[in-house]
Write a structure and sequence with these properties.
36% of the residues lie in helices and 25% in strands. By secondary structure, it is of the alpha/beta class. The protein has a domain at 2-14 and 31-208: Ribokinase (UDP-N-acetylmuramoyl-L-alanine:D-glutamate ligase, 3-Layer(aba) Sandwich), CATH 3.40.1190.20. Strands 2, 3, 4, 7 and 8 form a 5-stranded mixed sheet that branches. It has a 4-stranded parallel sheet with strand order 1-9-10-11, covered by helices on one side. A 4-stranded antiparallel sheet has the order 12-13-14-15. It is globular, with a radius of gyration of 21 Å. The two termini are 28 Å apart.
């Protein structure tokens, strides 16, 4: 796994009783409950390692952080949770940090997300600093060794300053070298999954077996509004726009559609298809917001490809994993027993899910300008 991580901190709060605190400018005050600060977990790319551990698979994470107290906490969490990671610390760069404040609603007896505070690095500065650390012979030799020992590589990009175009080209060159050596040795090929943000250009021309944007990102790169993707015509419009522009670079694109499941857009020799995969009935959202589901979906795709190269099988499993994550309590992530829980498995069986061929799409027959 290689990509951006975030230090996620969750605070469970109560509305402050009237008159308890000094109020200077009409501000709203909440009280963090005793024990209501989780002191952090590591999300984004690290969620792939969480899922791998839940399934008994081995994983290794490469990521960039700052060299600050948040980075210290990230390192502590890696050590405590057994995540094997190479944490590249960049002095003067802010570690990506998310602080979420959930406030108890006594009437509904639930916690609602009321405030999120983000601490982000300057991505351009972080990219430049990361390139100096990564685009070196020592690091790339180490990366090549790790790639040779891997069956699948997941690149998780949130645009926070790690995976620049230059870094991706350098890492891809070593993956290509490993792929040739593995082929000559009769080994299974390395499969590459990319979970992108909005800068798709950085992955052009690189080895990508599955490209996994969400619907907001996919619609955004082709300048379409978000629509009801359960309507076949809408989904075909999105798939055709994506296929026309990006099908040459990414012939297998999996677009997550939230509660609508996921769509597989496949382009081959000027022809394309779009297939929708419904998701099992999800649990009620914890805290009114789905957390970590996209990361877990991408991780499940990657792990599935280790044992089955069929994207359809991988998507069914990824939909199941994401639906289980939806129901996890605030701040928690999937553990092994969750995926084997009879209640979850029965829900999967009862739904009797079937893939739906939405239709054929026009696709490019040759290289087209972006």
């Amino acid at each position: 796994m290689a990509g951006d991580i975030a230090l996620d901190r969750t605070f469970f709060c109560d509305p402050a009783p009237a008159g308890l605190h000094a109020v200077h400018a009409g501000e709203t005050i909440v009280d963090v409950r005793p024990g209501g600060d989780d002191f952090g977990s590591v999300g984004a790319a690290c969620n792939a390692c969480v899922l791998a551990g839940a399934l008994g698979a081995e994983s290794f994470l490469v990521t960039v952080t700052g060299d600050d107290p948040e980075a210290d906490r990230v390192g502590e969490i890696f050590a405590a949770s057994g995540v094997r990671a190479r944490q590249i610390r960049l002095p003067g760069v802010q570690t990506v940090t998310r602080l979420r404040f959930y406030v108890h609603d006594p009437a509904a007896d639930r916690f609602d997300l009321r405030l999120r505070v983000d601490k982000d690095p300057d991505a351009s500065a972080s990219h430049a600093r990361a390139e100096k650390e990564i685009c070196t012979r020592d690091f790339l030799d180490w990366w090549e060794q790790q790639a040779h020992a891997s069956n699948v590589i997941l690149f998780s990009d949130t645009g926070k300053g790690f995976l620049s175009r230059r870094v991706m080209v350098a890492l891809n060159e070593r993956i290509a070298r490993v792929a040739e050596r593995r082929a000559s040795d009769g080994m299974e090929p390395i499969r590459v999954v990319v979970d992108p943000k909005r800068e798709w250009e950085k992955f052009e021309g690189l080895k990508v077996d599955l490209f996994k944007p969400n619907d907001v990102e996919a619609a955004g790169v082709v300048h379409l509004p978000r629509m009801d993707w359960s309507v076949g015509a809408n989904l075909r419009t999105l798939a055709e726009s994506i296929g026309q522009k990006w099908g040459n670079d990414f012939p297998n694109i999996v677009i997550t559609l939230g509660e609508r499941g996921a769509a597989l857009v496949t382009v081959r020799e000027g022809r394309g298809t779009v297939v929708r995969f419904p998701t099992p009935g999800a649990h009620k959202l914890a805290g009114g917001i789905a957390m970590h589901c996209g990361d877990m979906f991408a991780a499940a795709l990657a792990l599935s490809l280790c044992i089955d190269e069929d994207p359809a099988s991988a998507i069914f499993f990824a939909n199941y994993v994401a639906s289980v994550q939806v129901g996890k309590p605030i701040g928690q992530k999937i553990v092994g027993p969750d995926l084997k829980d009879p209640r979850n498995l029965n829900r999967l069986r009862d739904d009797a899910l079937q893939a739906e061929l939405v239709g054929e799409i026009r696709a490019p027959s040759g290289i087209r300008p972006k």
